[in-house]
């Protein structure tokens, strides 16, 4: 691995970590596109690598900050974690049956739809609070 590759991977990791702690995202939204566009991994390779990162206890420090401030719903998190575990298995099986380009397209559409929803929701909240 070259120094440049290590620096790119470290940049992706720190940015994903900051966003994960800041707004609760990082894996799919930052790591996957970073690995695809900056390092040339296929969509499937990037997704597998992102899941590898998420399988490690990389979010513990951020989680601890939210827990200390009383902002963790443990029961909700446990239900989501268990079902995420099962869903990740079936989702990965489905993804690997499709072309990486189809998966990339679907992933982009999903990110665009979520982005639009978040932008509209944030804008409406700001406008309604200013009245």
Walk me through this protein's architecture:
- With 131 residues, the chain is an all-alpha fold.
- The protein has one domain.
- 85% of the residues lie in helices and 0% in strands.
- It has six helices and no strands.
- Helix 1 runs antiparallel to helix 2 and helix 2 packs across helix 3.
- The protein is globular, with a radius of gyration of 17 Å.
- The termini are far apart.
- The relative contact order is 0.08.
Put the structure in a nutshell.
With 131 residues, this protein is mainly α. It has helices at 3-23, 27-39, 43-55, 60-68, 74-97, 100-130.
- The chain-level mean pLDDT equals 87
- Beta-strand residue percentage: under 5%
Q: Which term fits the overall shape?
A: globular
| Rg, nearest Å | 17 Å
Q: How many structural domains in the coordinates?
A: 1
Helix content: over 70%
Q: How many extended strands?
A: 0
Main sheet: strands, sense, barrel: none
Q: Which residues form runs of ≥5 with pLDDT under 50?
A: none
Distance between the termini: 55 Å
Number of helical segments with 4 or more residues:
6
- Structure class: mainly alpha
The ordered H/E elements are: HHHHHH
Secondary structure: elements and pairs:
Elements: H1 3-23, H2 27-39, H3 43-55, H4 60-68, H5 74-97, H6 100-130
Helix pairs in contact: 1-2, 2-3
């Amino acid at each position: 691995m070259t120094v440049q590759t290590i620096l790119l991977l470290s940049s992706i990791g720190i940015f994903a970590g900051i966003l994960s702690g800041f707004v609760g995202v990082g894996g799919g939204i930052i790591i996957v596109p970073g690995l695809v566009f900056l390092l040339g991994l296929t969509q499937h390779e990037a997704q597998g690598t992102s899941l590898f990162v998420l399988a490690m206890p990389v979010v513990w420090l951020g989680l601890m900050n939210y827990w200390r401030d009383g902002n963790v719903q443990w029961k909700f998190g446990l239900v989501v974690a268990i079902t995420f575990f099962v869903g990740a298995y079936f989702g990965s099986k489905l993804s690997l049956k499709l072309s990486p380009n189809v998966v990339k397209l679907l992933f982009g559409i999903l990110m665009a739809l979520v982005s639009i929803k978040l932008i509209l929701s944030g804008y409406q909240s700001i406008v309604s609070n200013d009245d």
